[in-house]
Amino acid sequence: MEIIDYLRVARRRFWVLIGVPLIAAGVTLYLILSAPTQYTATSTVSAPALVGGSATNQYSGSQAVNQYVAQFQATAQSPGVRGATSDSTGVKRADIADGLTISQVGASSVMNLTFTSTDRHAPAAVLGALTDNTLKTLFDTQVSLAQGRVDAAKSALSSANSAIGDWRKKNGMVDPDRVYQGQLDNLNALKQVQAQRLSSGDSAAAAALSGAIATAKQHLPELAPLVTQYEQLTSDRTLAATSLGQAEQQLIDAKAQLAAADPAKVVTLSSVTKVDPVSTMWSTVLPVTGAAVFVAIALVAMLEMLSRSRSAARASQPEKKPSSGGPRPAASSTNGSTPANGSSGAKTAPSGSPVTTPANRATQPATSSSTTGASRRDATEPVVALPPRK
Fold first, then answer.
1. CA distances from 172 to 160, 234, 235 (A)
2. Which residues are 115's β-sheet partners?
3. CA-CA distance, 281 to 278, in Å (whole number)?
4. How far apart are CA 303 and CA 306, in angstroms?
5. pLDDT tens by residue, 38-51
6. Collapsed DSSP state (helix, strand, coil) of residue 323
7. What are phi and psi of 133, to 5 degrees?
């Protein structure tokens, strides 16, 4: 199709192309103007100390801002936060979900929360409770998690100390390392004294030391497993103490972040204002009208396709021809009169000649015997006999 063809279609379907957008715009305007008055407010959350900074912060690194913004939006719209806000304000969860808008200010970590409602007091109450619940969920949970780690580390350290105490009671020694080292030092001293006696020629004294040296050597293998057990217990205690120190530091950092996320310090709530219907009309009617234009174009295309398919179907049907056994058309006379056998009063006698009744006779026109008044009849038509003139 060429452009002129499209123009013809548009002219033929002009009211469809114009009517659908006008109806859509009119319905949208009616819905906006007939809607009840709405009120709105905006809450701004600005907490730069919560993003970046130390590596121990919850949101740190090159993607800290993006992570914080995504987590904030997801948390503020989560069922848990909406439920807590609904319980504290009395506003339905569905109304909170429909009236809430969350946006990021540029590429910063500042967040804007806007709530719109037909109740004048609802925006301030909902935004206040929502920001409190969101920040609490984001950072108070970190405090609870860090506190749980501290408790677990303390329990592990207590278990390690208890294990060492039980081992000491069982084996009767406080520090097997010192006992083992003492036995080893004693053995070395006896060997040194024995060597001195032998060098001085006092073999009897050297022989007397042999028993003590053998006893010392016998105790060393017995102490070696105990030393290994004790070293494992002390290693577990050292690891538990290290974990406790790390957990306590994480708890300190989490509490510092929670203090930095105090809503009284980082949240600013604007005043409640009435929503301007003009701005709502511009932001709603234009998109709806644009969508309706595309719908109208699609509707015109469907109508044209349907019309062409019907035309093609009619053109493909064969023409109906008259049946050969039907009546033939009557032949016209030379003077343009209808044949006499076509009149309503003619009857046919049994012999095949028509009978003229008085009614027929009254309606029949006078006919001269001249050639000009005679009618040319078809050879197949019956001849009507006229009565003689009086």
1. 18, 17, 20
2. 41, 100
3. 5
4. 5
5. 899 999 999 888 88
6. coil
7. -65, -35
319's tokens = 């023409």
One-letter amino acid for residue 341 of the chain? N
End-to-end CA distance of the chain: 80
Q: Which of 332, 300, 302 is nearest to 17 (CA)?
A: 300
Q: For 63, list phi and psi in degrees, rounded to 5.
A: -105, 20
Strands annotated E in the chain: 39-45, 100-104, 111-117, 267-269, 273-274, 347-348, 354-355
Please state, in angstroms and rounded to a whole number, the distance separating the CA atoms of residues 250 and 146: 6
Say how many CA atoms lie within 13 Å of 54 toward its Cβ: 10
> Scanning the structure block, which residue is given the tokens 């303390």?
154
Residue 78 token pair: 């989560």
Domain ranges of the chain: 1-37+275-299, 157-260
How far apart CA 65 and CA 253 sit, in angstroms, is: 19
Tell if the pTM clears 0.85, that is, is over it. no
Helix, strand or coil for residue 371? coil
Q: In residues, how long is the chain?
A: 390
- The owner of tokens 């709806």 is 288
DSSP letter for each residue of 338-366? PPGGGSTT-EE-TTS-EE--HHHHHHSPP
pLDDT 10s digits, 228-270: 888 888 899 999 999 999 999 989 988 888 888 888 888 999 9
Cβ-contact 289, 171 below 8 angstroms:
no
Residue 220: CB partners within 8 Å, gap ≥ 6? 180, 183, 184, 187
